Fold this sequence. Notes:
- The protein has one domain (about 1-160, about 185-580): FAD/NAD(P)-binding domain (3-Layer(bba) Sandwich), CATH 3.50.50.
- With about 575 residues, it is α/β, with parallel strands linked by helices.
- Helices cover about 25% and strands about 20% of the residues.
- Strands 7, 15, 16, 17, 18, 19, 22 and 23 form an eight-stranded antiparallel beta sheet that branches. Strands 8-2-1-12-24 form a five-stranded parallel beta sheet. A three-stranded antiparallel beta sheet has the order 9-10-11.
Amino acid sequence: MWSSKYTSLVALLNYAPLTLAAPRSAPTNATVSPDYVIVGGGPAGFVLAEQLSKDPKVTVVLLEAGPDTAGVEAIDVPGYAPSLLQTPYTWNYTCEPDPNLEGATTMLHQGRGFGGGAAVNYLGHCRGAPSVFDDWAKISGDDGLRWENFQNDFKATVHYKETPLNYDPHVNKSAYGDGPLELTSPNEDLGFVMNLMKSWANVLKLPWVDLNDGTGLGISSNTNVIRANNRTRDYAPQAYGWQLAGRSNAQQLYNAEVTKIGFKGKRAVSVTYVDPTTDVVTTLTPKEIIIAAGALNSPKLLMLSGVGPADHLKSHNIPVVADIPQIGKNLYDHHFAFMEFEVTSDLETLWQYTQNASFKASAEDEYRTNSSGPLGVPNGSAFALSRIPDEVFDGINATYHTSLPADRAHLIFQYSSSTLQGTTPNVSIISPFVAGAQPEAPGYVELKSSDYRDQPVIYTNYYGSPGDKATILYGYKQLRKIVSDPEISPVLIREIYPGTNVTSDDDLWHAITQGSSTFHHPLGTVALGTVVEGKTWRVKGLKGIRVVDSSTLPNMPTCHIMATVYAYAYHAAQLIKKQDR
Length: 581
């Protein structure tokens, strides 16, 4: 969720990931001609592989470019999540300077390794507004994506494990099923988080709800993808990979970076990948290929393979297989603006963990002994989704934000118990922040060259419309009201960023552009309805190739997207099983 444009939290935590365990296959013995090759070992890829390989007559090979993640303590322990950026477990992509951010650049990290983004994120599980999914059903012609039906796919991927708590988490148990991913609520005294939630309620006039049951607006303590018995991260390799490991018709291969999809006419016929640790190249010839590499790497791979905007491909001397101008377009993300405050010494923060040896030792001992304490919960374990009054958009010649269905939030509020700046006083800090939940203006992705080793060129276009700018400016002003609320103001010693002297709209806007970062929720670049067919996820005009991942989501859910990707891939798998390859 954080950008290395600001303090490297790897250095902040002073934590080095442990040596990898390797219970899965290295990319040297893949079935050469399987029924399916799935490119990308994130949530979508694992769900697809597990579901499709349930049929013992169907052979499946899952390819992941990054390393195995089994046994990596920094991944397993929720509290170590901030140490995972700028590591071998992320694609550390730098976006182009964004004129909307006064030329600032953003790091847009993506998961790299088994589990994808679910291995490195902050474990939040949220579904948000039902009307988003109803829109997808209309776009795709797939009635199964309507919330009324799609919620069954959400339930099929998760179950909720109840544990003794000293607070009411407001969990609607009917929203959960018996799927393999385990969800729990934070098992600690919420402390400051409870006070922050009260301030949100006071200022934003919102109730405490379960944002997984079809409620689109409100306040929630996080429902996290964490195992209740030992407070470790639960994610795709555990929930779905171990089932694959017991099937002779399924293989899951890491260190297998796909460089190109080969075509014979309009049919995809081969997948070529390289082991980045040895440079050994392998080509597979499956009956069908499913790309699940994410919103940045899926369009990149398609374009490298000759599928995308013809003029752009020709500029890199890539032979054109299919001229599909929309590939790489429609890039959306959740971008946030933060404030920073020095806080009193009784508040637990990451600064205390790094600067106070006894606090660190106590936290580590508590976690090892009882699977409890600050390391057993992710950073910023609560959030709020709120609307903006229509009059905020008066004078803006656009109707996008005011016409959003009533269940959709305009804003996401959250906080971090750490600094998000590059330079900051050596004191204990928290950073409340706010993001636009339904951005209007898209960015886009292009190729830098025809070399697969080059990162994609990413044009973010954050806050890229007058409505998006009005949204984040209003949200930032709401932050000022929240931090002035008496429920939390007693622990705030001083405002470090942007500073109490920053009050005019122009000065606030400058603070926003220089104090913004991303949730790392990119999507939409191979969109359902424009690039891929509804109900089949086949790339239009081509055969033997589908795309099922966040890149195909046509627009943003109103909160964290991980839960949606799991359910979406499960839904797609049920339909693909019934279709000819």
